[in-house]
Amino acid sequence: MPANLVNFIQVLRSHDVRVSPAETLDAMHVATTLGYRDRVRLRDGLGMALAKTPAEETVFNRCFDSYFNRGLADFSLDPEDNPGEEQAEAGEQEPGDAAEADPSTSDAAALEAAALNNPELAAVMNSDLMQALLNNDRNVLTMAMTQAGEGAGLQQIQMFTQKGQYTRKMLDAMGEQQLRGAIIELERAADPALASLQRYRDLLREQVRDFVDREYLLHAEGRNQQFMEDVLSKTRLSNIEHSYLHRVHELVRKMARKLAARHARKRRQYRRGHLDMPRTMRRGIANDGVMFNTYWRQVKREKPQLLAICDVSGSVAAYAKFLLLFLYSLQDVLPKVRSFAFSGQLGEVSDLFDEHPVEKAIEIVNWKYGGATDYGKSLEDFARLALDDINNNTTVLILGDARNNNGDPRIDIMRSVYQRAKQVIWLNPESRRAWGTGDSEMFRYLSACHFSAECNNLKQLERVVDQLLKSTR
Amino acid sequence: MHTQDFPQLASVEKIQEGFESFGYICSDKIATAVFLAFQLRKPILVEGPPGVGKTELAKTTAQLLETPLIRLQCYEGLDEAKALYEWKYGKQLLYTQVLKEKLGDLLQGAQGLAESVERLHQFGDIFYSEEFLEPRPLLKAMQQERGAILLIDEVDKSDYEFESLLLEILSDYQISIPEIGTVKARTSPMVFLTSNNTRDISDALKRRCLHLYIPFPTVELEERIVRSRVPDVEEHLRHQLVEFVHSLRQLDLKKIPAISETIDWARSLLLLHADQLEEELVRATLNVLLKFEDDIESTDGELGKLVREARE
């Protein structure tokens, strides 16, 4: 059982439930304390030790059910269990056979009769596998399947194209070969028992195939999801197909949570500060040396400010969307964000984000400010709106491709922003090689930036925001 | 706490029965959590919407075990001086003043400063000893001879730093006091933490706890709860009112009525001698269930339909 539990925890991890080694130990204790008799109770108990949020709990329950609730495979040939096809099949082959009460016993009987004058078939009949099939011994067969699955390394299955291969391996491990041999023999001899034996073989194959299907869902699904996320985070944001967008949103949120966890704690550290001993003693002199009042050396907290300016014209809109999504998912950790959007002209959009949920706000921004780009005009607007508020605690974050349609770039405004602000960061979705080509003013703007980065997929975006969080603190 | 001292906690069924005798009707899952927490000596982190009986669970466990319940209500700005211990500054100050005279006697005959200081060193840190220690809830829970139930209520309201403060206590049941050393629990207490999910609890804290999520109860369970709390309500009225509350929970409300509201409502219906739900009656008493004017207004149009459904 412990090995089984460890395997199960691997499955949980692949489904994005974080389980630490300490929690694995807890789960072991839970299992020994509760025992294995009451499945629901065991599930509840393990859930308490392993799943730590309601979301994780649903994942846990689903995984638990598909992992442990495999049930025993059903190998009976009884028409009660799967009526339709079985009876139809029997009816087609021998019309008289349908009248008989129990085809499975008749199959067994036919095989036994055939085995009497066929020593090879008799040997097959006496094999463990065939005996179990004949008696519909579900325990033995399920055990055999599980063992064969372990032997074939079924837990490593990754692609659905591998299903056939694993099914074959498992069947071989269970000794299906012998069965196959016997069928070929019977075919050659045109023995009437052939159909019966074939039926047993098909049943076996079907069960093993089902088993592989279930394992595939369990092991590969989570892994594929991780793979997908990995791919998405490295794809250019403008290339991501529309149908994957909701996944990207989730991914951004996940990354934002990670960053928030990394940075949240440190920012709150210096609130009260340390005891100011010299001052406390000095003031104590007045009270005959009794230190009656305590004084604290308070750390003056800077109030950093972040101004995000996003180009929302067609070429850059996709990137702006994700940058904004990132920034607003990090609201708890980041200093107060003011955001501006521009293409032809510029306007402040912070209020939109207060009033609407992030996705909705981004839509409105795109709709309101999208159009042909004019950096010069937009910078003028920006200077009018916010230049006075920029001081040495301000970080200005600009996202744009710096393609100004050959207009005046107004580098002078950028310079004054640069001189006032603590730092100016320019993110450009174009690759570095394209900077400065054609109507791109990137190199001229670079002279007024502290830091610039190429930024066109989530990984890069995450890195930049991480940097930002470090430096704005 | 050991199993032999508390036969009430010997099995999941016993816990359920015990809770029931105190009027706390709980699902199998909740009882399992308490059982595991006791057997594995782990704290439970209880989450769930307000009013589903998170705090009540700790209280009832204390009643069942007949141990003291020590409660720490969390809030923003809670620090170790309020949660762990504090030095009795006043007493320290008073004692220094009183003992000032004694100082002359002690130092009599000492040659020079060095010897005086040497003598003073012999007396140890009397002012930082247990006599001057003011225990706060967490330390108090460690000091209980027969163990205790420690309830750390609404832990999500405290700051991140406070969470890290809890880590040592929750995993080893001990507190480090720099001036004295480590205080180990005489009997490790059973710890319940509750959270309303206003913010994420840190992973480190979650890792040390069993996680129990209490959702709103099913109709059957809630009927049993109402029966045990308000036994005088007749069966068909009880069924109707629970059904009504359940359909109310499906609506978009600012504050969804919890179990405590269902109980209050059952009590008020009993006082009004209602024998079944009527639309007018429900409208008149709706403020027991819904605590926001907006909610009451928005449900007003649907009351008739909801009442009819509940009566079916």
From TrEMBL, chain A:
Coiled coil: none
Protein name from the UniProt record: VWA domain-containing protein
Record organism: Halioglobus japonicus
Stretches the record annotates as Disordered: 75-107
Amino acid composition bias (Acidic residues), ranges on this chain: 77-100
PANTHER family xref list: BLL5662 PROTEIN-RELATED (PTHR39338), BLR6139 PROTEIN (PTHR39338:SF5)
